[in-house]
Amino acid sequence: MGQMTIQAAVTMGQLQKKMDVIANNMANVDTAGYKNRQADFASLLFQQIDNLSDPQNAEGRLTPDGIRIGSGAALAQTNMNLSQGAIKDTGRNLDVALLDKNNFFAINVTENGNTETRYTRDGAFYLNPLNDGQVMLTTKNGNPVVGINGPLVFADGFEAINITENGQIAITRNGDQQIEGQLAVAEAVRPRLLEATGENMFKLPNLVGLNYNADEIVETTDLENIRVKSGALESSNVDTAKQMTDLLETQRAYQMNGRSISMADQMMGLVNQLR
Question: Is-annotated flag, keyword Repressor (predicted)?
Answer without folding.
Answer: no
